[in-house]
Amino acid sequence: MSASNGNRIQLSLPSRLELLGVVDKIADGITEYLEFEDVDRDAVAISVIEACTNAIQHGNGQESGQPIRVTFELDSDQLTILVHDEGKGFHPTPEDAMSPPDLLAVRGRGIFIMRSMMDQVEFDFSNGTTVSLTKRRSKSAEAGTAS
Amino acid sequence: MKMVEEERGSVVVIRMNGKLLGGPDSEAFQKQMKDYVSQGRHNILIDLSKVSWVNSTGLGMLIAAYHTVKSAGGKFKLTGVNQRIEQIFMVTKLQTIFDTYEEEAAALASF
């Protein structure tokens, strides 16, 4: 079930790597608000940064005039983040998706990191590229909120 | 990202400050590593205690530096790794190649 507009936070920012710190702060604030556990808060922030790095570098080719759009959908049991770029995109291979790169490779870890840290990662290449990252609330976090 | 260099005996300590994002920083950092190696300064300690986070491109910077120093017969070590960076090292298994120390004094003593 997708979040209603009342549970959606959206931002648009120029394709500049130095602005990733802004996204990081917002992601961290949202997971704090949702009372995610610390390890999950780090996992979400790391994964959002990776998705935005890909969108800026590979999607929009670091064309600062081309924005990336980041949407946070807050549900009672999970957080979904959509990262959209308007570029030609890239097509991850099965190897990108599932296996770590050569340990000493300088590049090629972004998708593997996202898949390792999030519960679900999906790509949509129908209009630019949209990466969907989902993290479910841990049972202990849910119990803490309920009490 | 800002970098400050400090000589501690035979070790060059590089204190990084900010976020390791790659991009333009990568080229400057790699050039600096090559300069150290060409000057015979082969013992490198990277202090990450003021680095809040690293993305995969920033990891690439560290790996490229590791290659440069190790291929010249040098030693490349890290200190000041926070929980978030440690998590990314664990996922990528880079903790198996990076020699990391909690305390700078222990890192310096290990060269």
Residue fraction in strands of chain A: 15-25%
Radius of gyration of chain B (CA) equals 13 Å
Silhouette of chain A? globular
Q: In sequence order, what are the helices and strands of chain B, one letter per element?
A: EEHEHEHEH
Rg calculated over all Cα atoms of chain A: 15 Å
* Helicity of chain B, as a percent range: 40-55%
Mean of the pLDDT scores of chain B?
A: 94
Q: List the total number of helices of chain B.
A: 4
Helices of chain A, by number, come to 5
Strand order of the largest sheet of chain A: 1-2-3-5-4
Alpha carbon gap, first and last residue of chain A: 24 Å
Oligomeric state of shown chains: heterodimer
Unreliable spans of chain A are none
The count of strands of chain B amounts to 5
Q: Going across the biggest sheet of chain B, name each strand in turn.
A: 1-2-3-4-5
> What gap, in angstroms, lies between the N and C termini of chain B?
26 Å
